[in-house]
Amino acid sequence: xxxxxxxxxxxxxxxxxxxxxxxxxxxxxxxxxxxxxxxxxxxxxxxxxxxxxxxxxxxxxxxxxxxxxxxxxxxxxxxxxxxxxxxxxxxxxxxxxxxxxxxxxxxxxxxxxxxxxxxxxxxxxxxxxxxxxxxxxxxxxxxxxxxxxxxxxxxxxxxxxxxxxxxxxxxxxxxxxxxxxxxxxxxxxxxxxxxxxxxxxxxxxxxxxxxxxxxxxxxxxxxxxxxxxxxxxxxxxxxxxxxxxxxxxxxxxxxxxxxxxxxxxxxxxxxxxxxxxxxxxxxxxxxxxxxxxxxxxxxxxxxxxxxx
Length: 308
Known about the structure:
The protein is mainly β. The chain contains two helices and 19 strands. The protein is globular, with a radius of gyration of 23 Å.
């Protein structure tokens, strides 16, 4: 018997988690490379394919990525050519919407554990955490308040860049962001968010209704009432509902997903151009276990109302 020893580097890992519970996603997962940058890499079609092995618990182990063969095949640091990958992650069970993220390789080999038990965020030994929003087909928990939001908006006919016609029609708002915030003084807490379905589904095709599932998991069973009355405690949470629609997003393009960096900028930064936003004028009351379907309409001026 001949024994052969093969040594190779592992590039790191990607952990897909639910944006609601922060728990690993148990279903089968897949990844797609959208772009490789760094030191003028060859075109994507000429690079070796991405190879990520899943452990069945939402963790993808990165064995090979485009442009990093020199790194995985030997242990000479001089051979390292940094690459930044833009990828999409998919949950094949359909319970979660695709997510897009970027990661730079090689990651550090620092194996020092921090006080919280984790490694440094850029360490090979610390997975890249990718949070995925639930799809309308996600399993709901009895401890959540769940809103199913159907959204429509106005578009001009014909759309830009054609000259303005002044004629508008109503369409399903696919790929729109729904945000649920606590009705309180600024800064208001974000309680939950979701995206309206935009993808063509098997045996269904493009959805005629743009539906989002928004789960709000952390509503206390009782809390102090914020309105005058005989009851000082209440199970209700007053919330504000916002919608944001990126007019640059093409929901018919199978290669793209809604850009959350544009729809929900970090640090409450101003929204970029061509993101249409609206908020319901009146607050709504949610409580643990509530299930509600909201039909909303966003006009071209950003006025959001209950869809008649």
